[in-house]
Amino acid sequence: MDTEFPQEVRIQAEQLRRGTLGVVPEHGLEEKLARARRTGKPLRIKLGLDPTAPDIHLGFAVVLRKLRQFQDLGHQVVIIIGDYTALIGDPSGRSATRPMLSPEAVQDNARTYVDQLARILDRDRTEVRFNSEWLGKLDFAQVIQLASRMTVAQVLQREDFADRYARHQPISLHELLYPLAQAYDSVAIEADIEMGGQDQTFNILAGRDLQREMGQEPQAALFMPLLVGLDGVKKMSKSLGNYVGIAEPPDTMFAKLMSLPDALMRDYFVLCTDLPVPEIDALLQQAGSGAVNPRDVKRRLAREIVALYHSAAIADRADAEWMRVHSAGELPSEMPEVLLTTEHAREGNVWICRLLVVAGMARGTGEARRLIEQGAVLLNGTRQTDVNVEFPLHALNGTVLQVGPKRYARLKT
RNA sequence: GGGGAGAUUCCCGAGUGGCCAAAGGGAACAGACUGUAAAUCUGUCGCGGAAUGCUUCGCAGGUUCGAAUCCUGCUCUCCCCA
């Protein structure tokens, strides 16, 4: 079967398959690559973006990195900013209706997106389109025409709709149009391959159907797994707070990655680094057998990732800093400064609970009080146990406030 | 259009006149342990310079010494029938 395709194509397809969940149809990748090679026409790889949350994190980078691979093979990436579909709000992966966005917010987010995309993609091989360009031109009759090509039963097959329906949660009628709109995007840009997370399965397959209906060669679908977030349970997302942003400072990235559950190391290695798979498996094997401290394998992982978005030298520095702080128990070399003024003092003294609130370590003095009672608060390394202590304002200058295992601040007066 | 069910603190979910700032679980936070992983144990988890204090149980009124719980109207959701 494989021998139908030239060796070069088979090798490329093999590389592109790394980390993917699968391709529809099975040999779609090979077919498209072979055709591009034959005709000399680069493939058009589609990725649709929902301009709601413009922060790119490692989970999203998984898909972008895959696109970059295509670009490095000479293909064209078409990013679709779903400014029009954002009026609907993609129901994918949601258990609740999404709020609609204002046009201004969509524009803002789109701009931010494009800037960040440049960190991973090759600008020369990236085309950015807004789907209002074609969706906005459809009139009601055309929408009806399109909608007639899909049945309610098909749409309700979608896991998130089915789930919400089963749980008696509301589904607005307009949400049902979302897959149709996204499918039409594929027709509009004549996509050869559409990339997406597994939560996009239905939408992407709908694109194939619609393309076929409209006389185009159906796109192949390439599915990427959703990267599990730092909590080890849910998909990485900004709103869940379990993410690592690709633009975050190296020390933050490193520390976040070190808190990753062991079980996720392989996924992160495969999806977020360029390390060859056999090498990854060798590392994990060593960690598993006890030959190497798993912590050090995780450090390797963190270094690889930080190096991708910063540099190898910066990654090494972040590693050293992390070891210094977490292994040797020393203070971080940099910590946020908190300025205390007479405003925070009473008769020249600062109440310790007030201090925590000013430093942003507690939401209110009630919470501060609890943290102290639980022994979480250290001032210059000394555990504070008295909820009522006050310190003279000037005496606090230069002291280090630590709350819990990872929050530090240097006080200034 | 008709009939029925429901809206509780971040989430799920108990609570049907006082013992309710509201059970239980999850998440989160903190402590112990550790490789700042996982697992486990413990504690906290509306606000609060803490008080027999204040503000919460979809929204607005009302009954009552007293309401998350009863009544009226409103908003929203789900189910069944058409």
Give an overview of the whole structure.
It is a single chain. The protein has helices at residues 7-17, 28-39, 58-72, 103-117, 132-135, 140-147, 152-157, 159-166, 178-189, 201-213, 250-258, 265-272, 277-289, 294-309, 312-327, 352-358, 365-373; strands spanning 22-24, 44-49, 76-81, 126-130, 193-197, 220-224, 337-339, 349-351, 377-379, 382-383, 390-392, 400-403, 407-412. It has three domains: 2-224, HUPs (Rossmann fold), CATH 3.40.50; 250-327, Tyrosyl-Transfer RNA Synthetase, CATH 1.10.240; 337-412, Structural Genomics Hypothetical 15.5 Kd Protein In mrcA-pckA Intergenic Region, Chain A, CATH 3.10.290. The longest helix is centred in the last third of the chain and has 16 residues, at 294-309. With 413 residues, the chain is α/β, with parallel strands linked by helices. α11 (250-258) runs antiparallel to α14 and α13 (277-289) runs antiparallel to α14 (294-309). The strands form three sheets. The chain has a six-stranded mixed beta sheet with strand order 1-6-5-2-3-4, with helices on both faces. It has a five-stranded mixed beta sheet with strand order 7-13-12-9-10, with no helix packed on it. It binds one RNA strand of 82 nucleotides through α14, α15 and α17.
